[in-house]
Amino acid sequence: MSYLTTVFDLFWHFLVLSFLAIGGASSTLPDMHRFLVDTRHYMTSEQLSAMYAISQAAPGPNVLFVELFGWQAAGLGGAIASLVGICGPSCVIAAVIARVMDRKPDARWIALVRRGLAPLTIGLLFSTGWVLARGANSSFSTIALTVATVLACSFTRVHPLVLVGLGALVGGMGWV
Fold first, then answer.
1. With contact defined as beta carbons under 8 Å apart, do 14 and 35 qualify?
2. What is the C-alpha to C-alpha distance for residues 86 and 99, in angstroms, rounded to an integer?
């Protein structure tokens, strides 16, 4: 596959995914995994999980992982194509919806759409967590760290940055 074909392939795939990214680009990570790892072999499952983790720990918007995936597949052109593909349509759609909602803030259909999208978004995010856990958990210690993190997030008020720091410490000490 030529460089330009790869760049267009990335752009087109992320453009299509942008219409499914309800709740954010992370909700489409399972399909990104299928495309980037299983179908096109642009990276391994471990690389995808690591890039996603790094991008989520970095300051800035959480959609940066898409750019990293594009960079891994096709360098700068792939990074730009992936980011424009995933962000472009959602930016336009969000602007149009915001305008409509400003004009009719009390419309019943708006509340119904929100109520319908909430469970869908939650399901997509759980699917994302599952895909990431499968790619990152290769030993008992990584599985234990994942379970401990899920429990800490679910049942305590520990700030996520504290958990990121602890994870980096555990990794730096060679325990995972």
1. no
2. 21
The predicted model scores a pTM of: 0.67
Cα–chain center distance at 69: 10
Query: Measured between alpha carbons, how far is residue 41 from residues 8, 46, 84, 134 in Å?
Result: 16, 12, 22, 17
CA distance 176 to 174: 6
Query: Environment class of residue 141 by beta-carbon count within 10 Å: exposed (0-12), middle (13-18) or buried (19+)?
Result: middle
* AA identity, residue 126: F
pLDDT at 67 over 90: yes
Decide if 73 contacts 42 (C-beta within 8 A): yes
The domain locations on the chain are 3-136, 137-176
Cα first-last separation, the chain: 37
pLDDT-wise least confident of 73-82, 113-122, 160-169: 113-122
Give the list of residues 6+ apart from residue 33 with CB closer than 8 angstroms, or none. Answer: 45, 48, 131, 135
